[in-house]
Amino acid sequence: MARDKLRDWVGLYGGALPGARVTLSYEDSDVVLDAWTDQR
User: Fold this and answer.
1) Kind and range of the H or E run holding 33
2) C-alpha span between 10 and 29 (Å, rounded)
3) What pLDDT digit, counting tens, does each position of 8-20 carry?
4) Residue 18, CB half-sphere, CA atoms under 13 Å: how many?
């Protein structure tokens, strides 16, 4: 689901946010589970 969100958001802005990144993490501990950029 998070991978789909990245694709949707990048598509929505048409690449207007270079360097944009989506990070999936635990809210309580800030442990990063995965991260996606428009390059991935």
Assistant:
1) strand 32-37
2) 27
3) 766 666 666 677 7
4) 0
